[in-house]
Fold these 2 entries.
Entry 1:
Amino acid sequence: MSTVWLNDRFLPAEQARVSVLDRGFLFGDGVYEVIPVYGGRPFRLQRHLRRLERSLAAVGIDNPATRDQWTARIDELVERNGGGDQGVYLQVTRGVAPRQHVPEGELEPTVLLMSNPLPPRSGIARVSAVTLPDDRWGHCDIKSIALLASVLLRIRARGEGAGEAILLRDGELTEGAASNVFTVLDGVVVTPPVSPRLLPGITREVLLELLRKAGIEAEERPVSEQELRNAREIWLTSSTQEITAVTMLDGREIGDGRPGPTCRRADELYQEYKRLQVE
Ligand SMILES: Cc1ncc(COP(=O)(O)O)c(C=O)c1O
Protein backbone atom coordinates (compact mmCIF):
# COMPACT_ATOMS: atom_id res chain seq x y z
CA MET A 1 0.00 0.00 0.00
CA SER A 2 1.45 3.32 -0.97
CA THR A 3 1.83 6.29 1.30
CA VAL A 4 0.42 9.73 0.46
CA TRP A 5 0.74 13.17 2.04
CA LEU A 6 -2.61 14.85 2.74
CA ASN A 7 -2.59 18.41 4.13
CA ASP A 8 -0.32 17.94 7.12
CA ARG A 9 0.74 14.29 7.36
CA PHE A 10 1.68 11.05 5.71
CA LEU A 11 -0.88 8.25 5.73
CA PRO A 12 -1.75 5.09 3.79
CA ALA A 13 -3.48 5.94 0.48
CA GLU A 14 -6.66 4.04 1.38
CA GLN A 15 -7.11 6.12 4.54
CA ALA A 16 -6.77 9.49 2.79
CA ARG A 17 -10.13 11.31 2.65
CA VAL A 18 -11.13 14.71 1.29
CA SER A 19 -14.38 16.58 2.01
CA VAL A 20 -17.15 16.50 -0.62
CA LEU A 21 -17.13 20.31 -0.25
CA ASP A 22 -13.57 20.52 -1.51
CA ARG A 23 -13.49 22.99 -4.39
CA GLY A 24 -11.22 20.65 -6.31
CA PHE A 25 -14.01 18.03 -6.24
CA LEU A 26 -16.86 20.46 -6.93
CA PHE A 27 -15.28 22.88 -9.42
CA GLY A 28 -11.92 21.45 -10.51
CA ASP A 29 -10.60 24.52 -8.68
CA GLY A 30 -6.93 23.67 -8.25
CA VAL A 31 -3.58 23.07 -9.90
CA TYR A 32 -1.12 20.21 -10.03
CA GLU A 33 2.35 19.02 -10.98
CA VAL A 34 3.79 15.66 -11.98
CA ILE A 35 7.45 15.24 -11.08
CA PRO A 36 9.50 12.30 -12.34
CA VAL A 37 11.91 10.70 -9.88
CA TYR A 38 14.93 8.68 -11.04
CA GLY A 39 17.03 6.59 -8.67
CA GLY A 40 15.15 8.19 -5.76
CA ARG A 41 15.95 11.74 -6.92
CA PRO A 42 13.32 14.19 -8.19
CA PHE A 43 14.23 15.35 -11.70
CA ARG A 44 14.29 19.13 -12.34
CA LEU A 45 12.36 19.69 -9.11
CA GLN A 46 13.07 23.43 -8.95
CA ARG A 47 11.52 23.91 -12.41
CA HIS A 48 8.42 22.01 -11.36
CA LEU A 49 8.14 24.04 -8.16
CA ARG A 50 8.59 27.25 -10.14
CA ARG A 51 5.80 26.22 -12.53
CA LEU A 52 3.63 25.32 -9.52
CA GLU A 53 4.21 28.81 -8.10
CA ARG A 54 3.18 30.29 -11.46
CA SER A 55 0.01 28.18 -11.67
CA LEU A 56 -0.97 29.00 -8.07
CA ALA A 57 -0.39 32.73 -8.60
CA ALA A 58 -2.38 32.64 -11.86
CA VAL A 59 -5.47 31.24 -10.09
CA GLY A 60 -4.99 33.20 -6.85
CA ILE A 61 -4.29 30.34 -4.43
CA ASP A 62 -1.64 31.01 -1.78
CA ASN A 63 1.27 28.61 -1.97
CA PRO A 64 0.80 26.44 1.12
CA ALA A 65 4.51 25.51 1.41
CA THR A 66 7.96 26.89 0.77
CA ARG A 67 10.28 25.27 -1.78
CA ASP A 68 12.22 23.68 1.07
CA GLN A 69 9.05 22.26 2.60
CA TRP A 70 7.89 20.85 -0.74
CA THR A 71 11.32 19.35 -1.31
CA ALA A 72 11.47 17.71 2.14
CA ARG A 73 7.95 16.26 1.77
CA ILE A 74 8.59 14.95 -1.72
CA ASP A 75 11.91 13.38 -0.64
CA GLU A 76 10.22 11.66 2.28
CA LEU A 77 7.27 10.49 0.17
CA VAL A 78 9.65 8.97 -2.38
CA GLU A 79 11.60 7.23 0.35
CA ARG A 80 8.47 5.91 2.10
CA ASN A 81 7.32 4.52 -1.25
CA GLY A 82 10.53 2.62 -1.86
CA GLY A 83 12.75 5.02 -3.84
CA GLY A 84 13.79 4.12 -7.39
CA ASP A 85 11.85 5.55 -10.35
CA GLN A 86 8.52 7.14 -9.49
CA GLY A 87 6.08 9.74 -10.74
CA VAL A 88 5.11 12.12 -7.94
CA TYR A 89 1.69 13.76 -8.27
CA LEU A 90 1.24 17.04 -6.38
CA GLN A 91 -2.14 18.76 -6.17
CA VAL A 92 -3.28 21.94 -4.45
CA THR A 93 -6.96 22.93 -4.44
CA ARG A 94 -8.47 26.14 -3.14
CA GLY A 95 -9.87 24.19 -0.18
CA VAL A 96 -13.18 23.34 1.48
CA ALA A 97 -16.08 25.84 1.42
CA PRO A 98 -19.85 26.02 0.86
CA ARG A 99 -20.54 25.47 -2.83
CA GLN A 100 -20.68 28.88 -4.45
CA HIS A 101 -18.61 30.02 -7.39
CA VAL A 102 -16.97 32.95 -5.61
CA PRO A 103 -15.27 31.69 -2.46
CA GLU A 104 -15.63 33.77 0.67
CA GLY A 105 -13.09 34.37 3.42
CA GLU A 106 -9.71 32.76 3.91
CA LEU A 107 -9.64 29.16 2.75
CA GLU A 108 -7.08 26.56 3.68
CA PRO A 109 -5.76 24.95 0.47
CA THR A 110 -6.03 21.15 0.30
CA VAL A 111 -2.67 19.55 -0.46
CA LEU A 112 -2.16 16.05 -1.82
CA LEU A 113 1.11 14.34 -2.71
CA MET A 114 1.11 10.77 -4.00
CA SER A 115 3.40 8.67 -6.15
CA ASN A 116 3.40 5.69 -8.47
CA PRO A 117 6.30 3.58 -9.70
CA LEU A 118 7.44 4.49 -13.23
CA PRO A 119 7.46 1.46 -15.52
CA PRO A 120 10.95 0.38 -16.69
CA ARG A 121 11.87 1.77 -20.11
CA SER A 122 12.77 -0.40 -23.03
CA GLY A 123 13.75 1.88 -25.89
CA ILE A 124 11.75 4.72 -27.37
CA ALA A 125 8.00 4.27 -26.99
CA ARG A 126 5.94 4.60 -30.17
CA VAL A 127 2.42 5.87 -30.52
CA SER A 128 -0.22 6.48 -33.18
CA ALA A 129 -1.82 9.90 -32.93
CA VAL A 130 -4.83 11.63 -34.43
CA THR A 131 -5.30 15.35 -34.95
CA LEU A 132 -8.29 16.93 -33.21
CA PRO A 133 -9.51 20.51 -32.82
CA ASP A 134 -8.12 22.08 -29.66
CA ASP A 135 -11.35 22.94 -27.85
CA ARG A 136 -9.75 23.49 -24.43
CA TRP A 137 -9.86 26.83 -22.62
CA GLY A 138 -7.66 29.89 -23.17
CA HIS A 139 -5.19 29.33 -20.30
CA CYS A 140 -3.51 26.05 -21.20
CA ASP A 141 -0.28 27.40 -19.68
CA ILE A 142 -1.83 26.93 -16.21
CA LYS A 143 -1.50 23.34 -15.01
CA SER A 144 -5.13 23.16 -13.89
CA ILE A 145 -6.74 20.01 -12.49
CA ALA A 146 -9.85 20.81 -14.57
CA LEU A 147 -8.98 18.35 -17.32
CA LEU A 148 -12.38 17.37 -18.71
CA ALA A 149 -11.58 18.63 -22.23
CA SER A 150 -8.26 16.74 -22.24
CA VAL A 151 -9.95 13.58 -20.94
CA LEU A 152 -12.57 13.76 -23.71
CA LEU A 153 -9.87 14.35 -26.34
CA ARG A 154 -7.88 11.32 -25.14
CA ILE A 155 -11.04 9.19 -25.08
CA ARG A 156 -11.83 10.28 -28.64
CA ALA A 157 -8.28 9.46 -29.73
CA ARG A 158 -8.56 6.04 -28.07
CA GLY A 159 -11.84 5.45 -29.90
CA GLU A 160 -9.96 6.04 -33.15
CA GLY A 161 -7.26 3.55 -32.15
CA ALA A 162 -4.70 6.22 -31.22
CA GLY A 163 -2.71 6.86 -28.04
CA GLU A 164 -2.60 10.65 -28.22
CA ALA A 165 -4.59 13.55 -29.65
CA ILE A 166 -2.43 16.16 -31.38
CA LEU A 167 -4.29 19.44 -31.16
CA LEU A 168 -4.84 22.12 -33.79
CA ARG A 169 -6.13 25.62 -33.18
CA ASP A 170 -6.60 28.22 -35.93
CA GLY A 171 -4.68 26.04 -38.38
CA GLU A 172 -1.67 25.65 -36.07
CA LEU A 173 -0.28 22.91 -33.86
CA THR A 174 -0.62 23.60 -30.14
CA GLU A 175 0.33 20.43 -28.19
CA GLY A 176 -0.87 16.93 -27.31
CA ALA A 177 -3.75 16.28 -24.88
CA ALA A 178 -1.09 15.50 -22.23
CA SER A 179 2.23 16.21 -23.96
CA ASN A 180 4.20 18.77 -25.95
CA VAL A 181 4.89 18.10 -29.62
CA PHE A 182 8.18 18.35 -31.52
CA THR A 183 8.51 18.11 -35.31
CA VAL A 184 11.42 17.88 -37.71
CA LEU A 185 10.88 20.24 -40.67
CA ASP A 186 13.55 20.53 -43.38
CA GLY A 187 16.11 19.03 -41.02
CA VAL A 188 15.36 21.49 -38.20
CA VAL A 189 13.67 20.60 -34.91
CA VAL A 190 10.63 22.85 -34.47
CA THR A 191 8.20 23.10 -31.57
CA PRO A 192 5.50 25.75 -30.98
CA PRO A 193 6.53 28.65 -28.74
CA VAL A 194 5.37 28.99 -25.15
CA SER A 195 2.04 30.85 -25.02
CA PRO A 196 -1.33 30.58 -23.22
CA ARG A 197 -2.20 27.92 -25.82
CA LEU A 198 0.07 25.27 -24.35
CA LEU A 199 1.68 24.05 -21.16
CA PRO A 200 5.34 25.07 -20.85
CA GLY A 201 6.51 21.48 -20.40
CA ILE A 202 9.56 20.83 -18.27
CA THR A 203 10.61 17.95 -20.56
CA ARG A 204 10.22 20.27 -23.56
CA GLU A 205 12.45 22.86 -21.87
CA VAL A 206 15.15 20.32 -20.93
CA LEU A 207 15.15 18.82 -24.39
CA LEU A 208 15.49 22.20 -26.14
CA GLU A 209 18.50 22.91 -23.90
CA LEU A 210 20.08 19.52 -24.62
CA LEU A 211 19.53 19.70 -28.38
CA ARG A 212 21.03 23.18 -28.62
CA LYS A 213 23.98 22.24 -26.44
CA ALA A 214 24.62 19.30 -28.78
CA GLY A 215 24.65 21.69 -31.78
CA ILE A 216 21.27 20.54 -33.14
CA GLU A 217 19.23 23.42 -34.49
CA ALA A 218 15.97 23.73 -32.56
CA GLU A 219 13.43 26.49 -33.18
CA GLU A 220 10.42 27.64 -31.19
CA ARG A 221 7.96 28.94 -33.75
CA PRO A 222 4.40 28.29 -34.91
CA VAL A 223 3.89 25.04 -36.84
CA SER A 224 1.08 25.04 -39.40
CA GLU A 225 -1.22 22.07 -39.88
CA GLN A 226 0.36 21.54 -43.30
CA GLU A 227 3.87 21.51 -41.83
CA LEU A 228 2.77 19.04 -39.17
CA ARG A 229 1.36 16.72 -41.82
CA ASN A 230 4.55 16.96 -43.91
CA ALA A 231 6.93 16.60 -40.94
CA ARG A 232 9.73 14.08 -41.39
CA GLU A 233 9.56 13.21 -37.68
CA ILE A 234 7.13 13.93 -34.86
CA TRP A 235 7.60 13.14 -31.21
CA LEU A 236 5.89 13.90 -27.90
CA THR A 237 7.45 14.92 -24.60
CA SER A 238 6.16 14.64 -21.04
CA SER A 239 7.57 14.00 -17.59
CA THR A 240 6.33 10.43 -17.30
CA GLN A 241 6.44 9.41 -21.00
CA GLU A 242 9.74 11.24 -21.68
CA ILE A 243 10.18 11.09 -25.49
CA THR A 244 7.60 9.11 -27.46
CA ALA A 245 7.84 8.78 -31.24
CA VAL A 246 4.66 9.41 -33.22
CA THR A 247 4.89 6.78 -35.94
CA MET A 248 1.41 7.29 -37.41
CA LEU A 249 -0.68 10.45 -37.74
CA ASP A 250 -4.31 10.19 -38.82
CA GLY A 251 -3.60 6.74 -40.22
CA ARG A 252 -0.55 7.86 -42.27
CA GLU A 253 2.97 6.70 -41.47
CA ILE A 254 5.43 9.38 -40.33
CA GLY A 255 8.85 8.94 -41.98
CA ASP A 256 9.36 5.22 -42.33
CA GLY A 257 7.04 4.39 -39.43
CA ARG A 258 9.87 4.10 -36.88
CA PRO A 259 11.49 6.64 -34.55
CA GLY A 260 13.56 8.89 -36.85
CA PRO A 261 17.27 9.72 -36.44
CA THR A 262 16.68 13.08 -34.72
CA CYS A 263 14.20 11.53 -32.29
CA ARG A 264 16.71 8.77 -31.48
CA ARG A 265 19.45 11.35 -30.92
CA ALA A 266 17.12 13.43 -28.74
CA ASP A 267 16.31 10.34 -26.68
CA GLU A 268 20.03 9.50 -26.29
CA LEU A 269 20.72 13.03 -25.03
CA TYR A 270 17.79 12.84 -22.64
CA GLN A 271 18.73 9.42 -21.25
CA GLU A 272 22.35 10.53 -20.82
CA TYR A 273 21.22 13.65 -18.97
CA LYS A 274 18.99 11.55 -16.70
CA ARG A 275 21.92 9.26 -15.89
CA LEU A 276 24.08 12.25 -14.97
CA GLN A 277 21.37 13.51 -12.60
CA VAL A 278 21.21 10.19 -10.76
CA GLU A 279 24.95 9.65 -10.43
C1 LIG B 1 -1.27 19.43 -21.78
C2 LIG B 1 0.14 19.03 -21.46
N1 LIG B 1 1.15 19.53 -22.20
C3 LIG B 1 2.43 19.21 -21.96
C4 LIG B 1 2.77 18.31 -20.95
C5 LIG B 1 4.22 17.98 -20.70
O1 LIG B 1 4.70 18.67 -19.58
P1 LIG B 1 5.91 18.12 -18.71
O2 LIG B 1 7.03 17.86 -19.66
O3 LIG B 1 6.20 19.21 -17.76
O4 LIG B 1 5.42 16.86 -18.06
C6 LIG B 1 1.76 17.78 -20.15
C7 LIG B 1 2.10 16.86 -19.06
O5 LIG B 1 1.26 16.28 -18.43
C8 LIG B 1 0.41 18.14 -20.40
O6 LIG B 1 -0.59 17.66 -19.66
Entry 2:
Amino acid sequence: MDQMPDTDLDGNAPSRVTHLLREADSRIWEHLEQHRGDGLGFIPSDFQLVNAALERIVEEHLARGHLFCEWGSGFGVVSMLASLLGFDAYGIEIQSDLVLAAEDLAAYTRCDVRFAHGSFVTSCDEDLIATAKRSWWRSTESSAYEEFDLEPEEFDLFFGYPWPGEEDLFDALFVRYASVGALLLTFHETFGVLVQRKTCTSGPPAVIGWY
Ligand SMILES: C[S@@+](CC[C@H](N)C(=O)[O-])C[C@H]1O[C@@H](n2cnc3c(N)ncnc32)[C@H](O)[C@@H]1O
Protein backbone atom coordinates (compact mmCIF):
# COMPACT_ATOMS: atom_id res chain seq x y z
CA MET A 1 0.00 0.00 0.00
CA ASP A 2 2.72 2.48 0.92
CA GLN A 3 5.27 1.74 -1.76
CA MET A 4 7.12 4.74 -3.15
CA PRO A 5 6.91 5.24 -6.93
CA ASP A 6 9.95 4.34 -9.04
CA THR A 7 12.08 7.24 -10.19
CA ASP A 8 12.52 8.15 -13.86
CA LEU A 9 15.85 7.94 -15.73
CA ASP A 10 17.00 11.26 -14.21
CA GLY A 11 16.17 10.08 -10.73
CA ASN A 12 13.07 12.31 -10.48
CA ALA A 13 9.90 11.02 -8.86
CA PRO A 14 7.10 10.76 -11.42
CA SER A 15 4.22 13.20 -11.15
CA ARG A 16 1.08 11.96 -9.41
CA VAL A 17 -0.62 11.64 -12.80
CA THR A 18 2.23 9.54 -14.22
CA HIS A 19 2.27 7.41 -11.10
CA LEU A 20 -1.51 6.90 -11.28
CA LEU A 21 -1.53 6.05 -14.98
CA ARG A 22 1.37 3.64 -14.66
CA GLU A 23 -0.25 1.79 -11.78
CA ALA A 24 -3.69 1.85 -13.48
CA ASP A 25 -2.26 0.42 -16.72
CA SER A 26 -0.73 -2.56 -15.01
CA ARG A 27 -3.81 -3.31 -12.88
CA ILE A 28 -6.22 -2.90 -15.81
CA TRP A 29 -4.10 -5.08 -18.09
CA GLU A 30 -4.17 -7.84 -15.47
CA HIS A 31 -7.94 -7.44 -15.00
CA LEU A 32 -8.61 -7.60 -18.75
CA GLU A 33 -6.45 -10.72 -19.06
CA GLN A 34 -8.41 -12.42 -16.28
CA HIS A 35 -11.82 -11.40 -17.65
CA ARG A 36 -11.17 -11.87 -21.34
CA GLY A 37 -14.42 -12.60 -23.17
CA ASP A 38 -16.75 -12.20 -20.19
CA GLY A 39 -18.65 -9.49 -22.11
CA LEU A 40 -19.38 -7.29 -19.11
CA GLY A 41 -18.61 -4.09 -20.96
CA PHE A 42 -15.53 -2.67 -19.24
CA ILE A 43 -13.06 -1.07 -21.63
CA PRO A 44 -10.79 1.73 -20.39
CA SER A 45 -10.81 5.07 -22.18
CA ASP A 46 -7.61 6.79 -23.35
CA PHE A 47 -6.62 8.35 -20.03
CA GLN A 48 -3.94 10.66 -21.46
CA LEU A 49 -6.45 12.11 -23.89
CA VAL A 50 -9.18 12.49 -21.27
CA ASN A 51 -6.71 14.09 -18.85
CA ALA A 52 -5.66 16.60 -21.52
CA ALA A 53 -9.35 17.46 -22.06
CA LEU A 54 -9.89 17.90 -18.31
CA GLU A 55 -6.81 20.14 -18.09
CA ARG A 56 -8.16 22.31 -20.91
CA ILE A 57 -11.53 22.58 -19.18
CA VAL A 58 -9.77 23.83 -16.07
CA GLU A 59 -7.53 26.25 -18.02
CA GLU A 60 -10.50 27.63 -19.93
CA HIS A 61 -12.68 27.86 -16.78
CA LEU A 62 -15.45 25.96 -18.55
CA ALA A 63 -16.90 24.20 -15.51
CA ARG A 64 -19.23 26.27 -13.32
CA GLY A 65 -18.26 24.32 -10.17
CA HIS A 66 -16.28 21.42 -8.66
CA LEU A 67 -18.66 18.47 -8.64
CA PHE A 68 -17.60 15.72 -11.07
CA CYS A 69 -19.45 12.46 -11.77
CA GLU A 70 -18.21 9.52 -13.85
CA TRP A 71 -21.00 7.37 -15.29
CA GLY A 72 -19.76 3.77 -15.38
CA SER A 73 -16.47 4.43 -13.65
CA GLY A 74 -14.73 1.08 -14.23
CA PHE A 75 -11.32 1.37 -12.52
CA GLY A 76 -12.18 4.97 -11.61
CA VAL A 77 -9.12 6.45 -13.29
CA VAL A 78 -10.92 9.41 -14.90
CA SER A 79 -12.49 10.28 -11.55
CA MET A 80 -9.02 10.13 -9.97
CA LEU A 81 -7.56 12.38 -12.70
CA ALA A 82 -10.41 14.83 -12.07
CA SER A 83 -9.67 14.79 -8.35
CA LEU A 84 -6.00 15.56 -9.01
CA LEU A 85 -7.19 18.64 -10.92
CA GLY A 86 -9.20 19.85 -7.94
CA PHE A 87 -12.66 18.42 -8.65
CA ASP A 88 -14.74 16.69 -5.97
CA ALA A 89 -15.01 13.45 -7.88
CA TYR A 90 -17.60 10.67 -7.68
CA GLY A 91 -17.89 7.49 -9.74
CA ILE A 92 -20.85 5.15 -10.25
CA GLU A 93 -20.17 1.58 -11.35
CA ILE A 94 -22.48 -1.41 -11.68
CA GLN A 95 -19.84 -4.16 -11.33
CA SER A 96 -18.95 -4.58 -7.67
CA ASP A 97 -15.47 -6.00 -8.35
CA LEU A 98 -14.63 -2.85 -10.32
CA VAL A 99 -15.83 -0.64 -7.47
CA LEU A 100 -13.46 -2.50 -5.16
CA ALA A 101 -10.64 -2.22 -7.71
CA ALA A 102 -11.24 1.53 -8.07
CA GLU A 103 -11.30 2.05 -4.31
CA ASP A 104 -8.07 0.12 -3.95
CA LEU A 105 -6.34 2.11 -6.72
CA ALA A 106 -7.58 5.39 -5.24
CA ALA A 107 -6.22 4.44 -1.82
CA TYR A 108 -2.88 3.35 -3.28
CA THR A 109 -2.47 6.58 -5.27
CA ARG A 110 -3.97 8.71 -2.47
CA CYS A 111 -6.74 10.13 -4.65
CA ASP A 112 -9.75 11.42 -2.77
CA VAL A 113 -12.66 9.97 -4.78
CA ARG A 114 -15.95 8.33 -3.74
CA PHE A 115 -17.36 5.38 -5.63
CA ALA A 116 -20.86 3.96 -5.45
CA HIS A 117 -21.89 0.48 -6.47
CA GLY A 118 -25.04 0.81 -8.55
CA SER A 119 -26.48 2.25 -11.69
CA PHE A 120 -26.68 5.73 -13.11
CA VAL A 121 -29.82 4.67 -14.97
CA THR A 122 -32.95 3.56 -13.16
CA SER A 123 -36.07 1.73 -14.24
CA CYS A 124 -37.51 5.22 -14.98
CA ASP A 125 -34.99 5.47 -17.83
CA GLU A 126 -36.14 2.33 -19.65
CA ASP A 127 -37.80 4.59 -22.25
CA LEU A 128 -34.38 6.02 -23.17
CA ILE A 129 -32.63 2.66 -23.18
CA ALA A 130 -35.31 1.28 -25.52
CA THR A 131 -34.39 3.92 -28.13
CA ALA A 132 -30.71 2.89 -28.30
CA LYS A 133 -29.49 1.09 -31.40
CA ARG A 134 -27.39 -1.11 -29.15
CA SER A 135 -26.77 -0.80 -25.45
CA TRP A 136 -24.88 -2.51 -22.66
CA TRP A 137 -26.59 -0.44 -20.02
CA ARG A 138 -28.24 -2.14 -17.14
CA SER A 139 -30.72 -0.29 -14.97
CA THR A 140 -31.66 -0.74 -11.33
CA GLU A 141 -34.71 0.26 -9.29
CA SER A 142 -33.00 3.12 -7.49
CA SER A 143 -30.13 5.30 -8.60
CA ALA A 144 -26.67 5.29 -7.05
CA TYR A 145 -26.65 9.06 -6.39
CA GLU A 146 -28.47 8.40 -3.11
CA GLU A 147 -25.27 6.87 -1.74
CA PHE A 148 -23.49 10.19 -2.28
CA ASP A 149 -26.31 12.20 -0.75
CA LEU A 150 -26.32 14.31 -3.90
CA GLU A 151 -28.86 14.87 -6.65
CA PRO A 152 -27.71 14.45 -10.27
CA GLU A 153 -28.57 18.08 -11.03
CA GLU A 154 -25.96 19.22 -8.49
CA PHE A 155 -23.07 17.90 -10.59
CA ASP A 156 -21.17 20.40 -12.72
CA LEU A 157 -19.38 17.93 -14.96
CA PHE A 158 -20.24 14.41 -16.13
CA PHE A 159 -17.96 11.96 -17.92
CA GLY A 160 -18.92 8.81 -19.80
CA TYR A 161 -17.53 6.41 -22.40
CA PRO A 162 -20.44 5.41 -24.64
CA TRP A 163 -20.20 2.29 -26.75
CA PRO A 164 -20.83 2.89 -30.46
CA GLY A 165 -24.60 3.36 -30.79
CA GLU A 166 -25.03 4.66 -27.21
CA GLU A 167 -23.97 8.26 -27.88
CA ASP A 168 -27.52 9.66 -28.17
CA LEU A 169 -28.46 7.80 -25.00
CA PHE A 170 -25.76 9.58 -23.00
CA ASP A 171 -26.91 12.93 -24.40
CA ALA A 172 -30.54 12.14 -23.55
CA LEU A 173 -29.66 11.06 -20.03
CA PHE A 174 -27.61 14.22 -19.57
CA VAL A 175 -30.51 16.39 -20.76
CA ARG A 176 -32.84 14.53 -18.40
CA TYR A 177 -30.73 14.73 -15.24
CA ALA A 178 -28.19 17.55 -15.44
CA SER A 179 -29.06 21.15 -14.67
CA VAL A 180 -28.60 24.01 -17.12
CA GLY A 181 -24.94 25.01 -17.25
CA ALA A 182 -23.51 21.53 -16.56
CA LEU A 183 -20.94 19.96 -18.89
CA LEU A 184 -20.91 16.50 -20.45
CA LEU A 185 -17.61 14.95 -21.55
CA THR A 186 -17.76 11.78 -23.61
CA PHE A 187 -14.86 9.71 -24.87
CA HIS A 188 -15.13 8.44 -28.46
CA GLU A 189 -12.51 5.99 -29.63
CA THR A 190 -12.04 7.48 -33.11
CA PHE A 191 -12.55 11.19 -32.45
CA GLY A 192 -11.38 11.92 -28.90
CA VAL A 193 -13.26 13.77 -26.17
CA LEU A 194 -16.47 15.65 -26.98
CA VAL A 195 -17.37 18.50 -24.63
CA GLN A 196 -20.99 19.66 -24.51
CA ARG A 197 -23.01 21.94 -22.26
CA LYS A 198 -26.64 21.90 -21.25
CA THR A 199 -27.92 25.34 -22.24
CA CYS A 200 -31.68 24.91 -21.94
CA THR A 201 -34.06 22.61 -20.07
CA SER A 202 -34.91 20.48 -23.11
CA GLY A 203 -33.35 20.04 -26.53
CA PRO A 204 -29.90 18.67 -27.31
CA PRO A 205 -26.82 19.90 -25.44
CA ALA A 206 -24.67 22.54 -27.17
CA VAL A 207 -21.38 21.29 -28.59
CA ILE A 208 -18.39 23.19 -27.20
CA GLY A 209 -15.86 21.18 -29.18
CA TRP A 210 -13.61 18.14 -29.52
CA TYR A 211 -10.85 18.32 -26.91
C1 LIG B 1 -16.69 1.47 -21.52
S1 LIG B 1 -16.44 1.20 -19.77
C2 LIG B 1 -15.70 2.76 -19.29
C3 LIG B 1 -15.01 2.73 -17.95
C4 LIG B 1 -14.42 4.05 -17.48
N1 LIG B 1 -15.40 5.12 -17.49
C5 LIG B 1 -13.24 4.49 -18.31
O1 LIG B 1 -13.37 5.48 -19.03
O2 LIG B 1 -12.18 3.85 -18.26
C6 LIG B 1 -18.16 1.39 -19.18
C7 LIG B 1 -18.36 1.02 -17.72
O3 LIG B 1 -19.72 1.30 -17.38
C8 LIG B 1 -20.20 0.28 -16.51
N2 LIG B 1 -21.67 0.32 -16.59
C9 LIG B 1 -22.48 -0.14 -17.58
N3 LIG B 1 -23.77 0.13 -17.31
C10 LIG B 1 -23.77 0.79 -16.13
C11 LIG B 1 -24.80 1.36 -15.34
N4 LIG B 1 -26.07 1.31 -15.72
N5 LIG B 1 -24.46 1.98 -14.19
C12 LIG B 1 -23.16 2.04 -13.79
N6 LIG B 1 -22.13 1.53 -14.51
C13 LIG B 1 -22.45 0.92 -15.67
C14 LIG B 1 -19.53 -0.98 -17.04
O4 LIG B 1 -19.51 -1.99 -16.04
C15 LIG B 1 -18.13 -0.45 -17.39
O5 LIG B 1 -17.25 -0.54 -16.30
